[in-house]
Structure formats: structure tokens, C-alpha cells
TrEMBL record:
Keywords assigned: Oxidoreductase, Thiamine pyrophosphate
Protein name (Swiss-Prot/TrEMBL): Alpha-ketoacid dehydrogenase subunit beta
Keyword flag Oxidoreductase: yes
Protein source organism: Saccharopolyspora aridisoli
Domain of life of the source: Bacteria
Length: 338
């Protein structure tokens, strides 16, 4: 079910420079103002304002009955949100770190994803689960994971990821307005990167991808934290006269591969980039579908720059685990060598 068009929030329109963290806070605030049925809930989201301060000031302004500090129990958070959604509320659950989502996995897969289907469309569960994900912050075990492919595989869930403040602001509001459950993956190592946000400009549809840098030599597609890495790689390649086109996937389930197909039919090459391990992943699904739909346009096989098929390493080793500018450009060179 597509998200409806958003009414304009009371937030003053105009251009301002904000971080992704601030844009998410603004998006939550706009949704809380717009709809009294919107609730924010999670560990330390109230008085503390969240460990990343995404919910800073919301409990003070909207009260403890709408911004709720919960026990440290992800299964309980999501189960409670399901009950609230059935009663007509729109809960927004924060999972404090990506690796903490697994205690709530059963509630998400066995209940949240299936209720609409199980009830033959009579029960809606408009729940957003916010997940700070990915590495690059030097954290301990369970604090730097990329579980998005697990949820993209599950029918009944929508899975999206923002990469910049503009998308953070609008996509979060669109996810909250959606009548289906949405897993909203936030690139935590990019939380404090800044960009211009103009709240007067109409947003893109929630479940859409887009070209963020035009080019003609190689298509490079990514999502979440890797979009910035790919843009940096494209800027470096341009200094050597190589024109890369960068696509921000934005929606991981359902995938919007129209812009990717169109780009690949022009460039003849595709490099997919993500922090997640490559085995049975979002990138492997995209590679399969591009090779099925663009076979006669490809000048090289679809290649990938990803994490490795290992558990996430200790923080001292994460620089070698995460794809960086040089690894992206190395895979681009391999593609061009065909």
C-alpha cells in the first residue's frame, strides 16, 4: 500500500543546513504534530533523547504519553507497538543499535509482517521500526551490523534506508504515514553529516530510487552509508576523466530498479556497493535482476564491493572490513577491464 501524500508540517519552510540526525528529529516532530495517534517509543528515547539524540526534546514537548521510555526488551517494544497499532495508533519504535533487533525478530517476522495478510486485509499495522545500522563508529560487538537483507526477504514488510538529511526528513514522515510496517534503516556513521534541507520542496515517493550523480562510464548503485562513499569515489574518478553515475537505491523492499535498468542500458556496467556481506543479500538480488533485464546491454558482469562473509570485526579491524573509496574504484577498474 503506497504512502499517502503528506500534509505540510507546521515547521517553518525554507532552506536550512542540518545533519541527518537533526532532519530525523524534525521529521518525527512534524509527524507528532500532524497526527495525535503517532507515538515514539524505545529505550532512552524520552528523557535522554536517544543515544544518538535523534529524539532529543520530543518528550519535553509532547509528553510522556506520546514519547515513551521502554524497558530494555525489544520483543516487548515491538509486541506492544503491534497492540497499539491494532487499536489505531501509529507507533515509531527505536531499536537502539542494529544488533539489538534480533530479540524482537520473532515479533517482526511472525506477527508484524503477517497480520494484514492473516486478517484478510482487515487489520492494519502502521508501525515504523527505526534501526541505526552499519559500521564506522568504532563500537563493540552487536553495535555495527547490516541486517537489512534479512528483513527485505520477508513478505509484508517494507524496507527503506536514507542517505542524506533531505531523505531522512521526508522518508521518515512518509514511512509513518504508510499503513504497512516499515523497517527504516538509518546510517549511523553519517548522522552528523550536513546538507541543505528545503522543506518547501515536494519529496520523492518513499519507495523509489534516484540518480544522485549523472555519468556515462559505469553505474554505481548503493544505499544508506555507502552512498556518500560512492559519491566520493565518483569525484575522485572524475579527476582522472572517468564519469561514474551514482544511484541511491533508497528502497530495499520493494526495490525500484527502473532507474538502475535505465542507467545500465546506457553505461553497460554496474558496480553494487554495500557494507553487508555479499552472500544472499540485497546486492545479490539486484545483480540477478539486472543481468536478467539488461543482459544484452551489459559489457561486463555485475560486480560488487561489499563487506565480507564474516561476523563484523572488532573496531580496530573495521576499516579493512568496510568498503572504502579505493575498494569501490578498484571494482570499477575491474569492470572497465572487461
Amino acid at each position: 500500500m503506497a504512502a499517502p501524500a503528506l500534509e505540510r508540517p507546521t515547521t517553518p519552510s525554507g532552506t536550512q543546513t542540518v545533519t541527518i540526525a537533526k532532519a530525523l528529529n524534525m521529521g518525527l516532530r512534524a509527524s507528532l504534530e500532524r497526527d495525535p495517534k503517532v507515538l515514539v517509543m524505545g529505550e532512552d528515547v524520552g528523557k535522554l533523547g536517544g543515544v544518538f539524540r535523534i529524539t532529543d526534546g520530543l518528550q519535553k514537548d509532547f509528553g510522556e504519553h506520546r514519547v515513551l521510555d521502554t524497558p530494555l526488551a525489544e520483543s516487548g517494544i515491538i509486541g506492544t507497538a503491534i497492540g497499539l497499532a491494532i487499536r489505531g495508533y501509529r507507533p515509531v519504535c527505536e531499536i537502539q543499535f542494529d544488533g539489538f533487533i534480533f530479540p524482537g525478530f520473532d515479533q517482526i517476522i511472525s506477527q508484524l509482517a503477517k497480520l494484514h495478510y492473516r486478517s484478510q486485509g482487515k487489520v492494519k499495522v502502521p508501525i515504523v521500526i527505526r534501526v541505526p545500522f552499519g559500521g564506522g563508529i568504532g563500537a563493540v560487538e552487536h553495535h555495527s551490523e547490516s541486517p537489512e537483507s534479512l528483513f527485505a526477504h520477508i513478505a509484508g514488510l517494507k524496507v527503506v534506508s536514507c542517505s542524506n538529511p533531505v531523505d531522512a526528513y521526508w522518508m521518515l514522515q512518509q514511512a509513518i504515514e504508510c499503513d504497512d510496517p516499515v523497517l527504516f534503516f538509518e546510517p549511523k556513521r553519517r548522522y552528523y553529516e550536513k546538507a541543505e534541507l528545503d522543506t518547501s520542496i515536494d519529496p520523492l515517493p518513499l519507495l523509489s530510487s534516484r540518480v544522485v550523480r549523472a555519468g556515462s562510464a559505469v553505474t554505481v548503485a548503493a544505499y544508506g552509508p555507502m552512498v556518500r562513499t560512492c559519491l566520493d569515489a565518483a569525484a575522485a574518478a572524475a579527476e582522472d576523466g572517468l564519469d561514474l553515475e551514482v544511484v541511491d537505491l533508497r528502497a530495499l523492499s520493494p526495490l525500484d530498479l527502473g532507474p538502475v535498468f535505465e542507467s545500465v542500458r546506457r553505461t553497460g556496467r554496474l558496480v553494487l556497493v554495500s557494507e553487508a556481506p555479499p552472500e544472499s543479500s540485497v546486492t545479490s538480488e539486484i545483480a540477478s535482476r539486472v543481468q536478467q533485464n539488461c543482459f544484452y546491454s551489459l559489457e561486463a558482469p555485475v560486480l560488487r564491493a561489499t563487506g565480507f562473509d564474516t561476523p563484523y570485526p572488532p573496531s580496530k579491524l573495521e576499516e579493512g572490513f568496510l568498503p572504502d573509496l579505493d575498494r569501490v574504484l578498484d571494482v570499477v577498474d575491474r569492470s572497465l577491464a572487461y
